[in-house]
Protein backbone atom coordinates (compact mmCIF):
# COMPACT_ATOMS: atom_id res chain seq x y z
CA UNK A 1 0.00 0.00 0.00
CA UNK A 2 1.56 3.27 -1.08
CA UNK A 3 1.06 6.95 -0.45
CA UNK A 4 1.98 10.19 -2.12
CA UNK A 5 4.98 12.24 -1.13
CA UNK A 6 2.64 15.01 0.09
CA UNK A 7 2.77 13.59 3.64
CA UNK A 8 6.22 14.90 4.53
CA UNK A 9 7.51 16.86 7.53
CA UNK A 10 8.05 19.95 5.37
CA UNK A 11 4.31 20.56 5.09
CA UNK A 12 3.60 20.24 8.80
CA UNK A 13 1.78 16.91 8.58
CA UNK A 14 2.40 14.04 10.94
CA UNK A 15 3.18 11.02 8.76
CA UNK A 16 0.47 8.43 9.46
CA UNK A 17 0.68 6.68 6.10
CA UNK A 18 1.23 3.31 7.76
CA UNK A 19 -1.61 3.64 10.27
CA UNK A 20 -4.19 0.89 10.59
CA UNK A 21 -7.71 1.67 11.80
CA UNK A 22 -6.63 0.61 15.30
CA UNK A 23 -3.66 2.96 15.11
CA UNK A 24 -5.99 5.85 14.26
CA UNK A 25 -8.33 5.01 17.11
CA UNK A 26 -5.45 4.75 19.58
CA UNK A 27 -3.92 8.02 18.34
CA UNK A 28 -7.12 10.01 18.89
CA UNK A 29 -8.18 8.13 22.05
CA UNK A 30 -4.93 8.72 23.90
CA UNK A 31 -4.81 12.28 22.56
CA UNK A 32 -8.05 13.20 24.34
CA UNK A 33 -7.00 11.64 27.62
CA UNK A 34 -9.13 8.49 27.74
CA UNK A 35 -8.03 5.21 29.41
CA UNK A 36 -5.90 3.04 27.15
CA UNK A 37 -7.37 -0.16 28.60
CA UNK A 38 -10.68 0.54 26.82
CA UNK A 39 -8.99 -0.15 23.48
CA UNK A 40 -9.13 -3.86 24.34
CA UNK A 41 -12.90 -3.68 23.77
CA UNK A 42 -12.67 -3.01 20.01
CA UNK A 43 -14.09 -5.54 17.54
CA UNK A 44 -13.56 -4.28 14.00
CA UNK A 45 -14.68 -6.70 11.26
CA UNK A 46 -13.05 -5.82 7.95
CA UNK A 47 -10.05 -4.09 9.52
CA UNK A 48 -7.64 -6.30 7.59
CA UNK A 49 -8.94 -4.79 4.33
CA UNK A 50 -6.87 -1.68 3.75
CA UNK A 51 -7.89 -1.07 0.14
CA UNK A 52 -10.42 1.48 -1.08
CA UNK A 53 -14.06 0.90 -0.20
CA UNK A 54 -15.39 4.05 -1.88
CA UNK A 55 -13.72 5.53 -4.98
CA UNK A 56 -11.14 8.01 -3.72
CA UNK A 57 -7.38 8.38 -3.57
CA UNK A 58 -7.85 9.26 0.12
CA UNK A 59 -8.46 6.57 2.74
CA UNK A 60 -12.07 7.53 3.37
CA UNK A 61 -13.16 4.01 4.31
CA UNK A 62 -10.48 3.73 6.96
CA UNK A 63 -11.43 7.13 8.38
CA UNK A 64 -15.11 6.14 8.49
CA UNK A 65 -14.30 2.88 10.28
CA UNK A 66 -12.21 4.71 12.87
CA UNK A 67 -14.74 7.51 13.42
CA UNK A 68 -17.70 5.20 14.03
CA UNK A 69 -15.60 3.02 16.34
CA UNK A 70 -14.30 5.99 18.32
CA UNK A 71 -17.82 7.28 18.93
CA UNK A 72 -19.11 3.86 19.99
CA UNK A 73 -16.12 3.19 22.24
CA UNK A 74 -16.50 6.54 23.97
CA UNK A 75 -20.18 5.77 24.61
CA UNK A 76 -19.19 2.37 25.99
CA UNK A 77 -16.60 4.05 28.23
CA UNK A 78 -19.28 6.36 29.68
CA UNK A 79 -21.59 3.37 30.17
CA UNK A 80 -18.89 1.49 32.09
CA UNK A 81 -18.11 4.43 34.37
CA UNK A 82 -21.73 5.28 35.19
CA UNK A 83 -22.28 1.64 36.12
CA UNK A 84 -19.61 1.59 38.79
CA UNK A 85 -16.47 1.17 36.73
CA UNK A 86 -17.35 -2.16 35.12
CA UNK A 87 -15.28 -3.46 32.22
CA UNK A 88 -15.85 -1.40 29.07
CA UNK A 89 -18.32 -3.45 26.97
CA UNK A 90 -17.12 -4.62 23.59
CA UNK A 91 -18.11 -2.46 20.64
CA UNK A 92 -18.44 -3.78 17.09
CA UNK A 93 -18.24 -1.74 13.89
CA UNK A 94 -17.82 -3.29 10.45
CA UNK A 95 -15.79 -1.40 7.87
CA UNK A 96 -18.31 -1.63 5.03
CA UNK A 97 -21.21 -0.51 7.20
CA UNK A 98 -19.23 2.49 8.49
CA UNK A 99 -18.46 3.61 4.94
CA UNK A 100 -22.13 3.29 4.01
CA UNK A 101 -23.17 5.40 7.00
CA UNK A 102 -20.83 8.16 5.78
CA UNK A 103 -23.29 8.46 2.85
CA UNK A 104 -26.52 8.13 4.83
CA UNK A 105 -28.14 11.35 3.59
CA UNK A 106 -27.89 10.06 0.01
CA UNK A 107 -29.37 6.63 0.67
CA UNK A 108 -32.62 6.94 2.57
CA UNK A 109 -36.01 6.25 1.03
CA UNK A 110 -39.24 8.06 1.82
CA UNK A 111 -42.37 6.09 0.92
CA UNK A 112 -40.07 3.75 -1.00
CA UNK A 113 -38.49 6.49 -3.11
CA UNK A 114 -34.86 7.65 -2.90
CA UNK A 115 -35.01 11.38 -3.51
CA UNK A 116 -31.75 12.99 -4.67
CA UNK A 117 -30.20 15.83 -2.71
CA UNK A 118 -31.13 19.33 -3.77
CA UNK A 119 -28.67 20.52 -6.38
CA UNK A 120 -27.04 23.92 -6.28
CA UNK A 121 -28.43 26.10 -9.05
CA UNK A 122 -25.92 28.96 -8.82
CA UNK A 123 -23.01 27.54 -6.86
CA UNK A 124 -20.38 24.95 -7.57
CA UNK A 125 -17.16 25.41 -9.52
CA UNK A 126 -16.77 28.57 -11.63
CA UNK A 127 -13.88 29.64 -13.85
CA UNK A 128 -11.88 32.73 -12.97
CA UNK A 129 -9.21 34.63 -14.87
CA UNK A 130 -6.51 32.37 -13.41
CA UNK A 131 -8.27 29.21 -12.25
CA UNK A 132 -11.48 28.36 -10.42
CA UNK A 133 -13.54 29.21 -7.36
CA UNK A 134 -16.23 27.14 -5.71
CA UNK A 135 -19.32 29.02 -4.54
CA UNK A 136 -21.69 27.75 -1.86
CA UNK A 137 -25.35 28.67 -2.29
CA UNK A 138 -27.00 26.48 0.34
CA UNK A 139 -28.77 29.37 2.10
CA UNK A 140 -30.44 32.52 0.71
CA UNK A 141 -28.10 34.84 2.64
CA UNK A 142 -25.10 33.21 0.96
CA UNK A 143 -26.67 33.69 -2.46
CA UNK A 144 -27.49 37.33 -1.71
CA UNK A 145 -23.95 37.93 -0.47
CA UNK A 146 -22.14 36.49 -3.51
CA UNK A 147 -24.48 38.29 -5.91
CA UNK A 148 -23.69 41.51 -4.08
CA UNK A 149 -19.95 40.89 -4.39
CA UNK A 150 -20.35 40.25 -8.12
CA UNK A 151 -22.70 43.20 -8.65
CA UNK A 152 -25.56 41.03 -9.88
CA UNK A 153 -29.33 41.32 -9.30
CA UNK A 154 -31.33 38.81 -7.27
CA UNK A 155 -32.65 37.08 -10.40
CA UNK A 156 -29.17 36.39 -11.79
CA UNK A 157 -28.55 33.01 -13.41
CA UNK A 158 -25.61 30.64 -13.19
CA UNK A 159 -24.48 31.93 -16.58
CA UNK A 160 -24.54 35.50 -15.26
CA UNK A 161 -22.29 34.46 -12.39
CA UNK A 162 -19.92 32.67 -14.78
CA UNK A 163 -19.57 35.82 -16.87
CA UNK A 164 -18.59 37.80 -13.77
CA UNK A 165 -16.22 35.32 -12.10
CA UNK A 166 -14.05 34.95 -15.20
CA UNK A 167 -13.02 38.59 -14.74
CA UNK A 168 -11.75 37.98 -11.20
CA UNK A 169 -8.51 36.42 -10.01
CA UNK A 170 -9.38 33.45 -7.80
CA UNK A 171 -7.71 34.69 -4.60
CA UNK A 172 -9.10 38.21 -5.04
CA UNK A 173 -12.64 36.88 -5.35
CA UNK A 174 -12.16 34.55 -2.38
CA UNK A 175 -10.83 37.37 -0.21
CA UNK A 176 -13.53 39.83 -1.17
CA UNK A 177 -16.28 37.25 -0.75
CA UNK A 178 -15.20 35.76 2.57
CA UNK A 179 -13.63 38.71 4.36
CA UNK A 180 -15.71 41.65 3.21
CA UNK A 181 -18.78 40.15 1.55
CA UNK A 182 -20.05 37.57 4.06
CA UNK A 183 -20.26 35.05 1.24
CA UNK A 184 -18.90 31.51 1.00
CA UNK A 185 -16.55 31.13 -1.97
CA UNK A 186 -13.03 29.70 -2.10
CA UNK A 187 -10.26 29.42 -4.65
CA UNK A 188 -9.34 26.01 -6.01
CA UNK A 189 -5.84 25.31 -4.68
CA UNK A 190 -3.26 22.56 -4.83
CA UNK A 191 -2.02 21.02 -1.60
CA UNK A 192 1.25 22.89 -2.05
CA UNK A 193 -0.60 26.20 -2.29
CA UNK A 194 -2.62 25.34 0.80
CA UNK A 195 0.53 24.38 2.72
CA UNK A 196 1.97 27.84 2.10
CA UNK A 197 -0.91 29.57 3.89
CA UNK A 198 -0.66 30.62 7.55
CA UNK A 199 -4.06 28.98 8.16
CA UNK A 200 -2.68 25.56 7.27
CA UNK A 201 -0.09 25.94 10.04
CA UNK A 202 -2.74 27.00 12.58
CA UNK A 203 -4.65 23.72 12.40
CA UNK A 204 -3.75 21.13 15.01
CA UNK A 205 -2.46 17.66 14.21
CA UNK A 206 -5.27 15.92 16.10
CA UNK A 207 -8.89 16.36 14.95
CA UNK A 208 -10.27 16.84 18.49
CA UNK A 209 -9.17 19.58 20.91
CA UNK A 210 -10.43 19.07 24.46
CA UNK A 211 -9.79 21.39 27.39
CA UNK A 212 -11.19 22.17 30.81
CA UNK A 213 -12.66 25.69 30.94
CA UNK A 214 -13.22 25.92 34.68
CA UNK A 215 -12.79 23.63 37.70
CA UNK A 216 -15.79 22.11 39.42
CA UNK A 217 -17.18 19.20 41.34
CA UNK A 218 -16.57 15.69 40.06
CA UNK A 219 -19.39 13.26 39.44
CA UNK A 220 -22.53 12.76 37.40
CA UNK A 221 -25.77 14.62 37.01
CA UNK A 222 -28.48 12.97 39.13
CA UNK A 223 -30.11 11.96 35.84
CA UNK A 224 -27.10 9.80 34.92
CA UNK A 225 -27.94 7.01 37.33
CA UNK A 226 -26.66 3.44 36.74
CA UNK A 227 -28.40 0.31 35.49
CA UNK A 228 -29.32 1.74 32.12
CA UNK A 229 -28.95 -0.11 28.83
CA UNK A 230 -28.68 3.24 27.04
CA UNK A 231 -25.16 4.65 27.63
CA UNK A 232 -26.21 8.32 27.49
CA UNK A 233 -29.69 8.08 28.99
CA UNK A 234 -30.29 11.24 31.05
CA UNK A 235 -27.75 13.39 29.17
CA UNK A 236 -29.34 16.65 28.05
CA UNK A 237 -28.06 18.18 24.82
CA UNK A 238 -28.90 21.52 23.19
CA UNK A 239 -27.84 21.45 19.54
CA UNK A 240 -27.75 24.77 17.66
CA UNK A 241 -26.78 23.78 14.13
CA UNK A 242 -27.67 23.17 10.48
CA UNK A 243 -26.49 21.19 7.45
CA UNK A 244 -24.42 18.00 8.19
CA UNK A 245 -21.39 18.03 10.49
CA UNK A 246 -22.78 19.28 13.81
CA UNK A 247 -26.11 17.50 13.23
CA UNK A 248 -24.18 14.22 12.85
CA UNK A 249 -22.74 14.75 16.33
CA UNK A 250 -26.17 15.27 17.88
CA UNK A 251 -27.57 12.28 15.99
CA UNK A 252 -24.71 10.16 17.33
CA UNK A 253 -25.38 11.17 20.94
CA UNK A 254 -29.08 10.43 20.38
CA UNK A 255 -28.40 6.90 19.11
CA UNK A 256 -26.91 6.16 22.54
CA UNK A 257 -29.87 7.59 24.44
CA UNK A 258 -29.16 11.31 24.96
CA UNK A 259 -32.09 13.74 25.04
CA UNK A 260 -31.18 16.00 22.12
CA UNK A 261 -33.10 19.22 21.48
CA UNK A 262 -32.26 20.41 17.98
CA UNK A 263 -32.68 24.19 17.84
CA UNK A 264 -33.02 25.76 14.41
CA UNK A 265 -33.85 29.28 13.31
CA UNK A 266 -37.22 30.12 11.77
CA UNK A 267 -35.33 32.65 9.64
CA UNK A 268 -33.51 29.94 7.69
CA UNK A 269 -35.22 27.66 5.16
CA UNK A 270 -35.70 23.95 5.68
CA UNK A 271 -33.20 21.66 3.97
CA UNK A 272 -35.58 18.72 3.52
CA UNK A 273 -33.19 16.09 2.19
CA UNK A 274 -30.71 16.77 5.00
CA UNK A 275 -33.07 17.67 7.84
CA UNK A 276 -35.01 14.41 7.52
CA UNK A 277 -31.89 12.31 7.85
CA UNK A 278 -30.06 14.22 10.57
CA UNK A 279 -33.07 14.74 12.83
CA UNK A 280 -33.21 11.05 13.68
CA UNK A 281 -33.28 10.63 17.45
CA UNK A 282 -33.89 14.32 18.15
CA UNK A 283 -36.73 16.53 19.23
CA UNK A 284 -36.90 19.70 17.17
CA UNK A 285 -37.71 23.27 18.21
CA UNK A 286 -37.33 26.65 16.54
CA UNK A 287 -36.09 29.76 18.33
CA UNK A 288 -35.11 33.17 16.99
CA UNK A 289 -32.27 34.39 19.22
CA UNK A 290 -32.85 37.93 17.94
CA UNK A 291 -36.13 37.92 19.89
CA UNK A 292 -35.94 38.50 23.64
CA UNK A 293 -38.42 35.77 24.60
CA UNK A 294 -36.77 33.14 22.39
CA UNK A 295 -33.30 34.02 23.62
CA UNK A 296 -34.53 33.78 27.21
CA UNK A 297 -35.93 30.31 26.47
CA UNK A 298 -32.64 29.21 24.90
CA UNK A 299 -30.67 30.42 27.93
CA UNK A 300 -33.07 28.57 30.20
CA UNK A 301 -32.38 25.36 28.29
CA UNK A 302 -28.63 25.99 28.40
CA UNK A 303 -28.69 26.51 32.17
CA UNK A 304 -30.25 23.07 32.60
CA UNK A 305 -28.40 21.10 29.90
CA UNK A 306 -25.24 19.01 30.05
CA UNK A 307 -23.98 19.69 26.53
CA UNK A 308 -24.27 22.68 24.19
CA UNK A 309 -23.40 21.94 20.54
CA UNK A 310 -23.03 24.83 18.13
CA UNK A 311 -22.05 24.72 14.47
CA UNK A 312 -21.41 28.39 13.79
CA UNK A 313 -18.20 30.34 13.26
CA UNK A 314 -15.94 30.81 16.30
CA UNK A 315 -17.09 33.79 18.40
CA UNK A 316 -20.14 34.44 16.20
CA UNK A 317 -22.52 33.66 19.07
CA UNK A 318 -20.67 35.92 21.52
CA UNK A 319 -22.55 38.98 20.31
CA UNK A 320 -25.74 37.26 21.42
CA UNK A 321 -24.41 36.71 24.93
CA UNK A 322 -23.44 33.11 24.22
CA UNK A 323 -19.65 33.29 24.61
CA UNK A 324 -17.96 30.41 26.47
CA UNK A 325 -17.47 32.70 29.46
CA UNK A 326 -21.17 33.56 29.63
CA UNK A 327 -22.19 29.93 29.14
CA UNK A 328 -19.97 28.78 32.00
CA UNK A 329 -21.45 31.50 34.22
CA UNK A 330 -24.90 30.16 33.40
CA UNK A 331 -23.93 26.50 33.81
CA UNK A 332 -20.77 25.69 35.75
CA UNK A 333 -20.57 22.08 34.53
CA UNK A 334 -21.47 22.64 30.89
CA UNK A 335 -19.71 20.96 27.96
CA UNK A 336 -19.42 23.39 25.04
CA UNK A 337 -18.89 21.63 21.71
CA UNK A 338 -17.90 23.75 18.71
CA UNK A 339 -17.91 22.63 15.08
CA UNK A 340 -16.38 25.10 12.61
CA UNK A 341 -14.81 25.13 9.17
CA UNK A 342 -11.25 26.16 10.02
CA UNK A 343 -10.99 25.91 13.81
CA UNK A 344 -10.59 28.55 16.52
CA UNK A 345 -7.02 29.55 15.60
CA UNK A 346 -5.48 31.29 12.61
CA UNK A 347 -6.42 34.11 10.23
CA UNK A 348 -9.32 32.13 8.73
CA UNK A 349 -10.91 31.16 12.04
CA UNK A 350 -13.81 33.55 11.54
CA UNK A 351 -14.57 32.54 7.97
CA UNK A 352 -17.61 30.64 6.79
CA UNK A 353 -16.95 27.26 5.27
CA UNK A 354 -18.51 23.96 4.32
CA UNK A 355 -17.21 20.50 3.44
CA UNK A 356 -17.08 21.16 -0.31
CA UNK A 357 -15.29 24.48 0.22
CA UNK A 358 -12.65 23.04 2.55
CA UNK A 359 -12.02 20.29 -0.02
CA UNK A 360 -11.58 23.01 -2.63
CA UNK A 361 -9.24 25.39 -0.82
CA UNK A 362 -7.06 22.69 0.80
CA UNK A 363 -5.99 20.90 -2.37
CA UNK A 364 -8.19 17.83 -1.94
CA UNK A 365 -10.17 18.42 -5.15
CA UNK A 366 -7.02 18.98 -7.19
CA UNK A 367 -5.25 15.95 -5.73
CA UNK A 368 -8.28 13.71 -6.31
CA UNK A 369 -8.42 14.83 -9.94
CA UNK A 370 -4.70 14.23 -10.45
CA UNK A 371 -4.93 10.71 -9.03
CA UNK A 372 -8.04 9.87 -11.07
CA UNK A 373 -6.18 10.89 -14.22
CA UNK A 374 -9.27 11.88 -16.21
CA UNK A 375 -8.12 15.38 -17.08
CA UNK A 376 -10.44 17.14 -14.63
CA UNK A 377 -9.54 20.39 -12.93
CA UNK A 378 -11.19 19.19 -9.72
CA UNK A 379 -12.84 16.06 -8.35
CA UNK A 380 -14.89 15.97 -5.15
CA UNK A 381 -14.74 13.18 -2.60
CA UNK A 382 -17.39 10.45 -3.07
CA UNK A 383 -19.14 11.51 0.15
CA UNK A 384 -19.15 14.39 2.62
CA UNK A 385 -16.26 12.75 4.46
CA UNK A 386 -15.16 15.92 6.25
CA UNK A 387 -18.69 16.60 7.48
CA UNK A 388 -19.31 13.07 8.70
CA UNK A 389 -15.82 12.65 10.10
CA UNK A 390 -16.08 15.92 12.01
CA UNK A 391 -19.52 15.02 13.35
CA UNK A 392 -18.38 11.69 14.78
CA UNK A 393 -15.18 13.24 16.12
CA UNK A 394 -17.21 15.96 17.86
CA UNK A 395 -19.48 13.33 19.42
CA UNK A 396 -16.38 11.43 20.57
CA UNK A 397 -14.94 14.59 22.10
CA UNK A 398 -18.23 15.31 23.87
CA UNK A 399 -18.38 11.84 25.39
CA UNK A 400 -14.73 12.15 26.40
CA UNK A 401 -15.67 15.40 28.16
CA UNK A 402 -18.59 13.65 29.89
CA UNK A 403 -16.16 10.98 31.14
CA UNK A 404 -13.48 13.44 32.20
CA UNK A 405 -16.02 15.75 33.80
CA UNK A 406 -17.23 12.85 35.94
CA UNK A 407 -13.64 12.00 36.91
CA UNK A 408 -12.12 15.49 37.12
CA UNK A 409 -15.08 17.88 37.37
CA UNK A 410 -15.64 21.28 35.81
CA UNK A 411 -16.77 22.78 32.53
CA UNK A 412 -15.21 21.57 29.28
CA UNK A 413 -14.81 22.71 25.70
CA UNK A 414 -14.50 20.52 22.61
CA UNK A 415 -13.36 21.94 19.27
CA UNK A 416 -13.49 20.09 15.96
CA UNK A 417 -13.15 21.59 12.49
CA UNK A 418 -13.66 20.40 8.95
CA UNK A 419 -10.10 21.48 8.17
CA UNK A 420 -8.81 19.49 11.14
CA UNK A 421 -10.46 16.34 9.83
CA UNK A 422 -9.13 17.16 6.36
CA UNK A 423 -5.61 17.44 7.74
CA UNK A 424 -5.91 14.15 9.61
CA UNK A 425 -7.32 12.32 6.57
CA UNK A 426 -4.52 13.69 4.42
CA UNK A 427 -1.93 12.53 6.96
CA UNK A 428 -3.07 8.93 6.36
CA UNK A 429 -1.67 9.16 2.84
CA UNK A 430 -3.25 8.30 -0.50
CA UNK A 431 -3.51 5.24 -2.71
CA UNK A 432 -0.99 5.38 -5.57
CA UNK A 433 -2.12 6.52 -8.99
CA UNK A 434 -5.72 5.67 -9.76
CA UNK A 435 -5.76 2.60 -7.49
CA UNK A 436 -8.18 4.25 -5.06
CA UNK A 437 -10.84 4.52 -7.76
CA UNK A 438 -10.84 0.81 -8.62
CA UNK A 439 -13.85 -0.10 -6.49
CA UNK A 440 -17.62 0.08 -6.54
CA UNK A 441 -19.55 2.88 -4.88
CA UNK A 442 -22.74 3.05 -2.86
CA UNK A 443 -24.68 5.64 -4.82
CA UNK A 444 -28.20 4.19 -4.57
CA UNK A 445 -30.08 2.15 -1.99
CA UNK A 446 -30.17 -0.64 -4.57
CA UNK A 447 -26.37 -0.92 -4.29
CA UNK A 448 -26.63 -1.98 -0.63
CA UNK A 449 -28.06 -5.15 0.96
CA UNK A 450 -31.30 -4.56 2.89
CA UNK A 451 -29.65 -5.69 6.12
CA UNK A 452 -27.95 -2.30 6.38
CA UNK A 453 -31.31 -0.49 6.52
CA UNK A 454 -34.17 -0.07 8.98
CA UNK A 455 -37.71 1.14 8.31
CA UNK A 456 -39.78 3.34 10.61
CA UNK A 457 -42.86 5.52 10.54
CA UNK A 458 -41.92 9.22 10.69
CA UNK A 459 -43.58 12.61 10.52
CA UNK A 460 -43.03 12.42 6.76
CA UNK A 461 -44.35 8.89 6.22
CA UNK A 462 -42.60 5.54 6.00
CA UNK A 463 -38.83 6.11 5.93
CA UNK A 464 -36.09 3.57 5.26
CA UNK A 465 -32.69 4.72 6.49
CA UNK A 466 -29.18 3.38 7.03
CA UNK A 467 -29.05 1.53 10.34
CA UNK A 468 -26.35 2.68 12.77
CA UNK A 469 -23.11 0.82 12.12
CA UNK A 470 -22.05 0.37 15.75
CA UNK A 471 -23.25 -2.01 18.43
CA UNK A 472 -22.29 -2.17 22.12
CA UNK A 473 -22.38 -5.42 24.06
CA UNK A 474 -25.31 -5.45 26.50
CA UNK A 475 -26.58 -2.02 25.41
CA UNK A 476 -29.47 -0.78 23.30
CA UNK A 477 -28.19 1.28 20.39
CA UNK A 478 -30.69 2.97 18.11
CA UNK A 479 -32.89 6.01 17.54
CA UNK A 480 -36.12 6.19 19.51
CA UNK A 481 -37.44 9.44 18.00
CA UNK A 482 -38.18 9.62 14.28
CA UNK A 483 -37.85 12.62 11.92
CA UNK A 484 -40.61 15.22 11.86
CA UNK A 485 -40.95 18.79 10.53
CA UNK A 486 -38.71 21.38 12.15
CA UNK A 487 -40.25 23.04 15.19
CA UNK A 488 -42.60 20.15 16.02
CA UNK A 489 -41.71 19.88 19.72
CA UNK A 490 -41.86 21.93 22.91
CA UNK A 491 -38.80 23.72 24.28
CA UNK A 492 -38.56 21.58 27.38
CA UNK A 493 -36.68 18.52 28.63
CA UNK A 494 -38.02 15.01 28.81
CA UNK A 495 -38.59 13.65 32.29
CA UNK A 496 -35.79 11.33 33.40
Automatic annotation (TrEMBL):
InterPro entries associated with the record: CoA-transferase_III, CoA-Trfase_fam_III, CoA-Trfase_III_dom_1_sf
> Annotated Gene Ontology MF terms?
catalytic activity
Which SUPFAM superfamilies does the entry link to?
CoA-transferase family III (CaiB/BaiF)
Instruction: Name the Gene3D superfamilies for this protein.
Output: Crotonobetainyl-coa:carnitine coa-transferase, domain 1
Q: Which family does it belong to?
A: Belongs to the CoA-transferase III family.
This protein's name:
CoA-transferase family III domain-containing protein
User: What organism is recorded for this protein?
Assistant: Plectosphaerella plurivora
Amino acid sequence: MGSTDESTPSNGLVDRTGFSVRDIIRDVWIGIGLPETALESLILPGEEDTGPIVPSSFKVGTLAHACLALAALSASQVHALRNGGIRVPNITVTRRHAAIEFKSERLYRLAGVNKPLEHQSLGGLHRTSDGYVRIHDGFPNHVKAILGVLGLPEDATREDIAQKTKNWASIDLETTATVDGNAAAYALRSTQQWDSLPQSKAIGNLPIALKQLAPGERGWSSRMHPDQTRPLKGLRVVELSRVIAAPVSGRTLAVHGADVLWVTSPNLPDLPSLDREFSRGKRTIQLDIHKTADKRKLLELIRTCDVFIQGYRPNSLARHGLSPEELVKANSNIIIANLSAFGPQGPWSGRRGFDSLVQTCSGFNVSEAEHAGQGEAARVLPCQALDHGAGYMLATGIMAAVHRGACEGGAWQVDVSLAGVMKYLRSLGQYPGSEGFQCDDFNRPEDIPEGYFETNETGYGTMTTVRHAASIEGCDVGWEIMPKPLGSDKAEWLLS
